[in-house]
Amino acid sequence: MLRLGLPITVLVVVLDQLSKWRIEEFLRPQGVTETPFYGTVPVNVTPFFMVVMAWNRGASFGFLNQAADWVGWAFTALAAVVSAALLVWMSKAENKLLAVALGFIAGGAVGNAVDRIRFGAVADFLYFHWGDWFFPAFNLADSAITVGAGLLILESLFKRPGSSYKEAP
Q1: pTM for this entry
Q2: Which tens digits make up the pLDDT trace of 7-46?
Q3: Cβ 114 vs Cβ 18: under 8 Å
Q4: Which of 50, 54, 63, 151 meets the CB 3.0–4.6 Å disulfide criterion with 101?
């Protein structure tokens, strides 16, 4: 099922990097050339959605964001190992839904790893809020991981315990 999942992985990485590049250029303060950069002004899109520029050196939801630099490199190495394992799993996937789910997850992991390698931090820019409730800023790679995880759960719900099923090629 690599023929299905791998193009999804590549597409997610490309779209993630393009979206980050565009937002970085849009929100980059005038005269600032280094990345990551700070001091941007959020852009209100709707009463509950803003485009912001946030740099996450840690894990999900900013966990370990202020940790030592080696933590980011450890996350990058972990993403590489997980992505390789997902590709092996994808090559053995027995159905299309599983291959698609793994493609989304692998693409998201690689997209964020590319940021860590290039900038030492992951670029997050989608920020949803409602009153005092907010969700931490995220990006397309994070969205792909979430969609992939949801599809993985969905796929597991339709798989009968103790049975192996395959779709026709």
Answers
A1: 0.85
A2: 999 999 999 999 999 999 999 999 999 989 888 889 999 9
A3: no
A4: 151
